[in-house]
Amino acid sequence: MKIKGTLILLMFAVMTVLTGCEPLMILNPKGPQAQTQADVILLSIGIMSFIVIAVFAILIYMLVKYRASNQSDDYEPPHIEGNHIVEGIIVGIPVLIVIVLSIVSVRSNYLVEATPEGYEDQDPLVVYAQSSNWKWHFSYPEEGIETVNYLYIPTDRALEFKLYSEGPITSFWVPQLGGQKYAMSDMVTTLHLAADAPGEYMGRNANFSGEGFAENTFSVNAVPPDEFDEWVDEVQDTAKPLTEDKYKELLEPGHLGQLTFSSTHLEFSPPPEGEHGGHNHGSSSEDSEEGNMDMDHENMDESHDPSE
Amino acid sequence: MDFFDRFAIPHPSPVIYASMVAITLTLVAIVAGVTYTKKWGYLWREWLTTVDHKRIGMMYLISALLMLFRGGADAIMMRAQTALPENTLLDSQHYNEIFTTHGVVMIIFMAMAFIMALMNFVVPLQIGARDVAFPRLNALSFWLYFWGAMLFNISFVIGGSPDAGWTSYFPLAGNEFSQSVGTNYYMIAIQIAGLGTLITGINFIVTILKMRAPGMTLMKMPMFTWSALITNLIIVFAFPVLTVALAMGTIDRLFGGNFFTTTDGGMDMLWANLFWVWGHPEVYILILPAFGIYSEIIPTFARRNLYGYKSMVASIVLISVLSFVVWVHHFFTMGQGAMVNSIFSITTMAIAIPTGIKIFNWLFTLWKGKITITVPMLYSLGFIPIFTIGGVTGVMLGMSAADYQYHNTMFLVAHFHLVIIPGVVFAMLAGLTYWWPKMFGFMLNERIGKLSFWLISIGTCVAFFPMFISGLDGQARRMYTYSEATGFGIWNMISFVGAIMLAAGFVTIVYNIYYSTRYASRDISSDPWDARSLEWATHTPVPDYNFAITPQVNSSEAFWDSKKNGHKLFPGEYKEIHMPNNSGVPFIMSAIFFVLGFALVFSIWILAVIALLGIFACLAHRSFEQDHGYHIPVEEVKETEEKLGGARQ
């Protein structure tokens, strides 16, 4: 038991060291949101290690000290009901730890749900990120462009992702920029991110969405703002516009490479937000009802048969 | 999909064909074996129609062990597939079905059955009762579970297994994206087994509240009985939610309902909410009996009373309440905002407090004790460090902002396996070894048992610790493959090695059962562990009526008191004993449920109607039946007691 306890302790220590030193993706943040999360994670690992070590130490002590083989044959263990001081400590310390962690948790949650710190004074870049089986469609409404399976984003600027899905629930996740959030077909969720450093980051759908889930990835290119503007101009000049027919073709289940268009699908296939939102059934106007119906028909017609 | 296409063999892979052949051969072997040894009558009279809680417990136990290997085979296949990057052992669809069935089988059909097994066998004995409150309903519970499990298990050879994850989130689990009958199996098989569980819940609450031996007040109940009581209360509150959610899901899939579709007013996240309103308490339905088992075993082998009995009781009650107010932490990332997340983050972390109290109470039970290391004690001691690591990572997951990064990753997989395996599996194996002599009249071999323990506990660490790292490195769960460039390969390979060790550990348990059945001494006393609670006060094997004389209790360790303080446990004289009659109806009715389930899965409406009528016929039969059980006369009680080595007075 002693050997085993030490072994586990050792493994946990190695793990903690590894997570601290190796550039594990989540602990190698490239934006303020991911930084907040990495800080929370490291802090909680620290506090939790303290608890783990305390439990291990008590366990090892008890096992060494009170093993039958270490005691005389006629030793009769006493009857002990409990002790108010001991029980006060074993309740009190966890309560204090949970209070501390709760404060950290609540604060950090408000931080990651808001515009990233230091970027409050500028307008965020809004990107609609829509998943379909098993692709990502990124629409830049202000720039009037759309990409498939890759993102170009400017560094040092707040990013506001509007997430929704055409099909099963997916989860938009770029670990080095910040945590994930669900994309659902009947509502739009908002995710605030920002990148501090240029680079190419991995992004993926983190929520199981069927057969093509494993390959449901995209790449994120974070570039300095002027380079981003150049890229936008270039796309507007060179790429073809996205037609409704082409868009429907793209929604077919399957995998695609990276594509670029000089217009977005938002006009002819609006996201399920505001009046179009699936959760506002009562207040929908005639037009948006029709909009919803159109989307439904698309679902029906293309019937997403995985065996196709 | 065309009617006959639905029955198609799901995957033209050698594994499936081999399984089909194996299933057929096993069935033929069983039928031939029973016929050859002329045991049909015995089987029917003594087992299939039994209402004895001890036998029902044993049948649960056998089923649970079978399901452990069924779910374990899935686990090995998953870890083998992901051991190497770009592996092609399984295709995506097959992998999806395997992780789905692994989750369902392990939670619903293995772990639940295992706790039911021990609860059935132990609780009536521990409270000094002759049986449960409703013995016939108890048989019905078991057979509903059994036939539900059978229905679920034929899915992987007929028509295809569910493939939307054990959580079956809609719309992925809806007809549009999940066209095979797999998810029908999920909805209906779990529904049938779940009905059985709900019945058990009611049955055991009544049993524990109404049938305790004289003198056993609530605060004198043994801890396992306490945990069983609270567990069954959670079952009665939580399972109706599952029943309703599955019914709604079935209506969506079979009858074109729109509860969880994303059109026509359906809400996909409603499923997630209902599922986890049941699913989170379910975790505590599994873990609380485990806590109860440890609270029996640790005092026994520390030769000391349980430290802080009252705080142990308070903490399980508190856990049961909190278990219902944390479900939203399963979808912190759904976009409900910082406010809702904060509330559920705090409630989630709060569960760590009563759980921590329990851990420290067990540690202090060792204090000033006289610890002997037996196999049940090894599992109980091994549980503490591993579960602590699983538990503290759970607190980490409970911090909502950080959860945005952990959610759906291997980190989460590592966390819940490091909670469930030491929490539930270790407890079940500890309980199995601990109560085995009472059940079967011989001990399991200690040396092989220790080997199993080391293989299983080291295997668990090796299999799941690497997942913390790959999770923090961005590996999402449920990915059937990944590229070499991700660098996940090494961690997954280590996990695979750990999984093999775990499998080897479970094989040694079976070998231990075989070995001990053949070679272990039958000459053991009725109290081989020098234990403390009432179940050890009766004979081994336990007679049908459990106790010839109802015990008189005056502490939570009644039997220990009678051994050490000379407390008279069995006052009075033999009296006539009233016992319930056996009945074939629970078995038959549940088998018809299986037919109904099968008919519904494949939309064979005529058969479904016939089966439904059959079920009603069984219910009607029962309501008109006059059955007052039978009495065992005093002479027969005396005779049995003498044969079993004289009455304990």
Give a brief rundown of this model.
By secondary structure, chain A is an alpha+beta fold.
Biggest interface between chains: A-B, 106 and 99 residues
Task: Return the CATH architecture of the largest domain in chain A.
Answer: Sandwich
* Overall number of strands of chain A: 11
* Low-confidence runs of at least 5 consecutive residues of chain B: none
The top level CATH class name of the largest domain in chain A: Mainly Beta
The number of helical segments of chain A is 6
Question: What is the CATH fold-level name of the largest domain in chain A?
Answer: Immunoglobulin-like
Q: What name goes with the CATH superfamily of the largest domain in chain A?
A: Cupredoxins -  blue copper proteins
**Assembly level:** heterodimer
What is the count of DSSP helices of chain B, taking H or I runs of 4+ residues? 20
How helix-rich are the residues of chain A, as a percent range? Answer: 25-40%
Strand order in the sheet with the most strands of chain A = 8-5-1-2-3-11
Overall average residue pLDDT of chain A:
85
Catalytic activity (chain B): 2 a quinol + O2 = 2 a quinone + 2 H2O
Family (chain B): Belongs to the heme-copper respiratory oxidase family.
Protein name (chain B): Quinol oxidase subunit 1
Pfam families (chain B): COX1
Element layout with pairings:
The complex is a heterodimer of chains A (308) and B (649).
Chain A: H1 2-21, H2 32-65, H3 84-112, E1 125-132, E2 135-140, E3 145-148, E4 150-154, E5 158-166, E6 170-174, E7 178-183, E8 189-194, E9 199-205, E10 217-223, H4 225-238, H5 244-251, E11 259-261, H6 286-302
Parallel strand pairs in A: 1-5, 4-10
Antiparallel strand pairs in A: 1-2, 2-3, 3-11, 5-8, 6-7, 6-9, 9-10
Chain B: H1 14-36, H2 40-48, H3 53-82, H4 92-126, H5 135-154, H6 182-210, H7 223-255, H8 268-302, H9 309-322, H10 337-350, H11 352-366, H12 375-398, H13 400-406, H14 410-440, H15 446-472, H16 489-519, H17 558-564, E1 577-579, H18 585-601, H19 605-624, E2 630-632, H20 634-643
Antiparallel strand pairs in B: 1-2
Helix pairs in contact in B: 3-4, 3-5, 3-16, 4-6, 4-8, 4-14, 5-6, 5-18, 6-7, 6-18, 7-8, 7-9, 8-11, 8-12, 8-14, 9-11, 10-12, 12-14, 12-15, 14-15, 15-16, 18-19
